[in-house]
Amino acid sequence: MRTAAERLSAATDGAGTLWVSPGRVNLIGEHTDYNDGFVLPFALPHATAVSGVRLERRHWVVTSEQTGETVTFDLSEKVGGWAAYVAAVVWVLREAGVDVPGARLSIASDVPSGAGLSSSAALECAVMAVLADLAGVDGARLPMRDRPRLAQRAENEYVGAPTGIMDQAASTLCQEGHALFLDCRSLATEQVPFDLAAAGLKILVVDSRAPHAHVDGEYAARRRACEEAAAVLGVAALRDIDADALPDALAKLDDDTIRRRVRHVVTENQRVLDTVAVLRAGDLRAAGPLMTASHASMRDDYEITVPQVDTAVEAALAHGAHGARMTGGGFGGCVLALVDEERCDAVRDGVREAFAAAGFTPPDTFVVTPGPGTYRFSR
């Protein structure tokens, strides 16, 4: 089966420039990014490809393979729907001083939409790469390390989704065979080796098929709760509270719900640091219990899981996974299970049986390996 980039290259007869940005899964570190904390994502082989050719007039004609729609817009209008992510990138690049030319853009994607695999960030980052290329802006003028912040601003301010920077950073900066250890405050990164095959392991992704969305009241409510707690505790962000100081911090909060939100963020930051330590030491299996503890925290303290993802985690563990957790913003989406190669089929079958017994829509399952971030596709 051809990839999105291969399909798009064929459909455009090699015309113009073509860039690819991947979706991502987060190995661990959920809802820590907008708290200035730590995350550990890696890029998927599933990616969004965008091709572009310049137009003389300053307007943008965008065609989506997925929807079959073509949307045309110019600078005089605010764009909605899926094309808002494209218009947002035009806007943020202009805000950054880039003379964005008019363009005809074509989009193809292998990233499942609504599964919590960051299809929106993949689109933003690929569009940004194409438009920068068409504008003649090279990596020296607009370095890859600066692009995640721009893409995040596009999604926050134009689209209206209050996301952190993890998704855009992962889609842009990841390297094949590595997880990206990202400090969301300083934007310092470390490529942490994550060679699953050498360890005899696989990451099995279970798409719960439960709807997933970021632009909703629940995500925003949790972000507000964290900001309110930080203000009460007198810190810039919850990242400034370490695990040892957590009991004292919780004692200063009157609201039990906010206490639980804080406990998740602080303990999740520590779990990211602990996971990086075991990966650096080459003990990949030791990440499993940390993943499982992360899921319990998301379920009980942050309250962002749904029955489908809880069932997937429980079934994966029951059938031999070293660890399992939901990945993404929550309220649906995907589960990651860290499994021995020889147990992968058993875990997959066990999850499917558990879904059938619960009367859920059958899940989609696939194995992933860490792939590269944004790159130009060679035709």
User: Describe the biggest sheet?
Assistant: 8 strands, mixed
Q: Order of helices and strands, N to C?
A: HEEEEHEHHHEEEHHHHHEEHEE
Class based on secondary structure composition and strand pairing: alpha+beta
Structurally, the number of domains stands at 2
Task: Provide the helix percentage.
Answer: 25-40%
- Counted by DSSP, the helix tally is 11
User: In the CATH hierarchy, what is the class of the largest domain?
Assistant: Alpha Beta
Shape, principal axes of CA atoms: globular
Distance between the termini: 17 Å
CATH topology (fold) name of the largest domain: Ribosomal Protein S5, domain 2
Classify the beta-strand content into a percent band: 15-25%
Report the radius of gyration as a whole number of Å. Answer: 20 Å
Record field, number of beta strands: 12
- The CATH architecture of the largest domain: 2-Layer Sandwich
Summarize model confidence as the mean pLDDT: 94
Poorly predicted runs: none
Domain GHMP kinase N-terminal: 85-173
Organism: Dactylosporangium aurantiacum
EC number: 2.7.1.6
Domain GHMP kinase C-terminal: 279-356
Main features:
379 residues, alpha+beta, Ribosomal Protein S5, domain 2, Alpha-Beta Plaits, eight-stranded mixed beta sheet, four-stranded antiparallel beta sheet, 11 helices, 39% helix, globular
